[in-house]
Amino acid sequence: MASDVAANVRSRLDDTIEQRIESIDWFESLDSTNDYLLAAPRPAASMLRVAIAEEQTSGRGRGDKQWVSSAGGGLWLSVAFTFAPTPDALSALTLAVGADVARCLAEYGASDVALKWPNDLMLDDRKLGGILVESRMAAASSTVVCGIGINLKEPEVAQFAGREHFMLPVGLEFAVRELPSVDDVAARIIGVLAGTFDRFAEVGLPGFAGAWSELDWLKGRRVVVIGEPHISGVADGISESGELIIRSGEIEFSIIAGTIRLVDTED
Q: Which fold has domain 2-214?
């Protein structure tokens, strides 16, 4: 069955993208697609390796936070890509990926997908998906593993019992007339990511900043950085290198990393 799923995904890819795929590995159950590709051989420069799981038993987001990825509930996919040479501000790749994935989902009819800095896909003020980019550096190149988790169906809230600061989930099914198959979404996302990587290598974050800003879910909203309660204020977009800008009176903060929550909400 694994070979059938991988072959089905391949058959949906544009020929120019399919020729760049070194491997597509599908698993009925896997601890983490990102971990799998981080342990696998690196793809050659400009080539891709893909891992897809029906379910992840140890799916994770930023800071090793648990990512609920149950069987049949969504797309759990990772793509490895090697940059040679390493582009500037590689950490901002997450933002570029977010902008392009949101555009991809809009093609299915989910036109209201927004982006919560730095890596969340939002729909109707709930969490639709997330992005986790991890990298392995070498002397003259860098390999990134980009994990994409998208809820196709709405997860049961009971799965999040006991977790602090979790955002209510939502499924793509609520934004589209007809829910696409996992295979179809996987193929489209793989094609989108190939283009994202190529373009990021050429132009970096500036080539994506405008599109990202149009989808900025936090823009103009009062926020607080969890773990650093003294940093709070109004979110004011991103810097040229991808940091979140928070303004508090006359003071401007540039946030490199952290968990951001809206003030006076329970998410």
A: BirA Bifunctional Protein; domain 2 (3.30.930)
